[in-house]
Amino acid sequence: MSTNRGYRVIDFRNRPPIKPYLGLFYLKKNYFCGARKNVGNLGTQTMTPSMEMEKVGTSEAMDLWFKEMDECGIERALINGRSAKGNAMSSREVADLVAAYPDRIVGLAAVDLDADPKEEADRVYKAIAEDKLPGANFEPGYAAGGGFTYKPGAAGISIEDPRVLPIAEAVQSAGGFVHIQGGMICGPDFGYNNPIALDHFLSMFPNLTVVMCHGGYPYVQEICCLMAKHGNFYVVPDIYMFHPGAQLYHVNLNLLPDQFIYGSGYPFCSMKEPLESTLALMDDPWAKVKPEVMEKYLYKNAARVLKLDA
Fold this sequence. Notes:
Number of strands: 7
Strand order of the largest sheet: 1-2-3-4-5-6-7
Helix content: 25-40%
Mean pLDDT: 94
Largest sheet: 7 strands, parallel
Number of helices: 11
Radius of gyration: 18 Å
Distance between the termini: 32 Å
């Protein structure tokens, strides 16, 4: 049986082996495959050929990356621009990569929350309206000196910070969606997921599609509550789908079938192992994910947000 069991797949959280993402590949090797071996998530512990550090940034690595996608039946991968120091990728770089692989890659605009909000709003609007990127990637926990690990004096900002709002308004005006960085390493501490601040943000923009990557982990119950409250809110659990306490994601796939979106989390996670574990949820006696729900999770919900059918 093939890895995808015949389902169409869009990977909504995947970063290819190119130089701007090199820091993420080191984080995979040294953190998820090193210090965090005690977490029994097979995907986060699995290194694949395209993850080899010396190959990142080469055509060989890209060939291996596409090979892994093909072996899993992944039709498209969503990549994101970002302004995080040391791991930046501009909207222009994203647009160029999408132009090189238009049938395989979809890309999001970068958002610099440390820039002048009005000027950044103009840049993001143009990236969506003119370069045809479907949305923009917000990483509030990495703004204002925040980063992957806690350092005294370092601090990110909240998603409801006044600096964020005009840029979010520009995304909405351009017809795009907002993509928010969540998860265990979303800033100096995981409090930058802040489900209450997110609730406020979603209430301010009821007609704006908002997607949270990394599932807002570890606030699994709170995130599911926000999905039930806000129909414009989508969640990509990606690598945290199989982290401690994530079983609430599993059982809520059937309860919130139109708002979960699949992502591998590559390179923090491999491609094959999380897809196989995801499909196994249909056979899980507790989750009992329905085939029609799995179809939405793996493809249809992402296609709707990305307006691929249009």
